[in-house]
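Thread: Newbie trying to understand structure tokens

Hi all, I'm a second-year student working on a class project, and my supervisor (Dr. K.) asked me to get a predicted structure for one chain before our next meeting. I've only ever worked with sequences, so writing a 3D structure as a token string is new to me. If someone could post the tokens and maybe explain what I'm looking at, I'd be very grateful. Here's the chain:
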Amino acid sequence: MFNDLELKDILNIGLSTGADLCEIYFEDKTKNVLEAEGGLISSANNAHTRGAGVRIIKDDFVVYGYTNELNFKNLTNLTADLASSFTGNKKTCLDFVKENRSPFKIIKHPEDVSIEEKAEIIKKMHDYAFNYDQCITQTKGILLDESQDISIVNSNGKYVADTRVRTRFYIISIAKHNDAIQTGSEGPGGQVGYELFDQIDLKKVCLESARTAKKMVYADECPSKEMPVIIHNGFGGVIFHEACGHPLEASGVAKGLSVFTGKLGQQIASTLVTAIDDGTIENGWGSSIFDDEGNLPQKNILIENGILKNYLIDEFNGKKMNLSSNGACRRESYKHLPTSRMSNTYIDNGESTFEEIIQKTKYGLFAKKLGGGSVNPATGDFNFSVLEGYIVEDGKIGKPVKGATLVGNGANALMKIDMVANNLLRAQGMCGASSGALAADVGQPTIRVSKMTVGGRGE
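---
Reply by user tm_fold:
Sure, no problem. This is what the structure looks like when written as tokens:
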């Protein structure tokens, strides 16, 4: 696309007014999405995007611009316009040091899978879920894949490239009983091709979504009160992701907008809690070979035995904090300014078993599956819906309850975790923040929070 001399010329223009760094991010991405309702394809979208973003940094200031016209003249003009934001002595681009690392292995690339094969997969999703029980009245299926080629070059001599291929499906089962309607959903995926469907049991996953919908449509309303809450493994980790993970991102910490600002080395959680963000997991949904500043991702221990050990740090915000980047910079596309973000974030295994946690709970809520929610990153206050819940009485899982909402504060909830199981499981999701919507794993073993406010409409 551009040779080294042209790239150097563009970067030198970015440095011509005294900037500390000029960076170009190139992207070429193809994304396919099939959606079906009742097993019938309702939409089929194919998108091909191609462009570049230019970021120029001086001291604590940054300017960013992007274009989809990838020619030397246009990119030169864009960079010159951005550089005009600064005044100062001209600096010079360093020689490139190209770093080559192999991307994750993809066995069955999406481009090698026909639309007919994809349509057959999405039809099976409906058939499995719809035939589970007569109370399942509708299904919605989504099958998506994307292939993203990126390259990053900057004036400090960095020059890297990465290819990211992701495949995921999402099944929603809708159950109806009298006037009550409830849903169940599952959405596994990974940084893999269509070998995903050789690695998982499609039927089992679809039946699980239908089972959840059926169980909840016949459930009583959840009572509203303070009680111990047992949050199950897998997607239960979304509470930590939202209420605690985002406040650990340097984008908020550097500005003093996080509840965890200035608390490195302090106890912020129960001593049972060790929390990790690991962008190096092979074929992980949120992993990468390089982060979106061209640095190597890391396995970052954020909290160890309750002590805050690290933040998620990008280069720009790291300088404000006098801390080095730890490979945690991400962006959705060339249209987004990069910043610190989570990748695969989870609470690590503890020493209890799931059965012990249930047996040692006299009364409480077992939140088997969580749904969406909201959080204030500055305070950590959150509320999350429970998609599948059960009352625990005298050490046994009892009746199912629906409509439960968990209300609390992330920092307080961390301190009240009094049991952590040894059944760590990760699940896939999409995380939206200032640098766009990103693939992100959440996860945890089953945990118990000794006291939490549970909202509901039951007695």
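A couple of things are worth pointing out once you decode it. The chain has a mean pLDDT of 97. The longest strand covers residues 158-177. Feel free to ask follow-ups in this thread.
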